[in-house]
């Protein structure tokens, strides 16, 4: 059955579709970066509200600013922006069709359609899932990268911007000038203080061309912090085949685990859906939740994926089942990371480690080590190194964390232990590989990448542990090094 509006009255048995009238939906959200995660997470929460007859004026208009987004647009428009969500619960697979998205804007170099859509007063929230590395931050200190060519181009042509943030600035200018008021900008990416970061990016970009507009944005626009969590693998032929086996011909189905969490700072300048009625946590203390998730789950992914790539372990659940990698994950998080994580209501760091261990071990989730290891140049500084710095300052153990970084260096050398090649998997792969190959003979070359490590190379405890770990990995192999760490 080809998925589209006409098919909703005849979905296969056991697959529920929208109970609401999609023709009656009106848009309240533009979401930029409409990939699998958004459709399995933020859009799903809105779908839950719509199933209750709520939030029918909060439908989503999808948007993108990259050329590859056009392919997703074509797929989704061809099926009336419907999505088949397949929940991969080890106890049994289930599926539903969701429909809170009603349009997908054309992808244009000057983002004209996107700017017009965001300038519509009916749009009260602009959401973002543009990846951790997409916020134009200097990796050395996290400051706004005003010198980036994309940013310079937007500052020079503010009415025809090429970035999502330039488009947001242009739309806010139109709304200010028309007196229609601001919208809330809601980042849904895995960044500590993502609201603060997107505020800085938008305001500082605006200031490069219009200081008065920058001040107006800073005073009137809300940028709530948020924490998002759901494991959502990439879609390939096997996921499409899984949907077809359930009786739905969906060109872009989404598989996901049987767990979701969304924590949002309740700071919206232009109203919001009643998300708390769909299970979202609205709080003034997002930081504690996001810190636990980023320090344990997101960092834990890097603990697994880098060594998994070197040892040719294809999936994250395969890493968890590996006799050395799984115990390594639990020991590093439990002994070296958890002491620097604050509990949240109803959850201690050790409880959270047990929870994510079960989630990562789910054999139905074929989340590849390659996907999880992608963009280590953003993920290690964002997820792992904050704990390293706190541990160094506190004088707590860092041997396992140093080993995590050594495995990243070993992976970036570009070969696995079986001799196969690791294809480039980072925006800065060439420079990372150059440093990784040089570090085989001189390990501190790797820590000398100050844009990631800052002054950590000057800390003897961490530098010595890293040097010993990387040397041992090249001399003895990953398994032997893991066994030594687990035995001590």
TrEMBL record:
Q: Superkingdom of the source?
A: Bacteria
Q: Please provide the record's keywords in A-Z order.
A: Oxidoreductase
UniProt keyword Oxidoreductase present: yes
Per its record, how is this protein called by name?
A: Mannitol dehydrogenase family protein
Q: Which InterPro entries match?
A: 6-PGluconate_DH-like_C_sf (IPR008927), 6PGD_dom2 (IPR013328), Mannitol_DH (IPR000669), Mannitol_DH/Oxidoreductase (IPR050988), Mannitol_DH_C (IPR013118), Mannitol_DH_N (IPR013131), NAD(P)-bd_dom_sf (IPR036291)
The Gene Ontology terms for molecular function here are: oxidoreductase activity, acting on the CH-OH group of donors, NAD or NADP as acceptor
Ranges of residues in domain Mannitol dehydrogenase N-terminal: 28-276
Where is each Mannitol dehydrogenase C-terminal domain found?
285-474
Q: Which Pfam families match?
A: Mannitol_dh, Mannitol_dh_C
Say if the entry is tagged with keyword Oxidoreductase: yes
Q: Which organism is it from?
A: Thalassococcus profundi
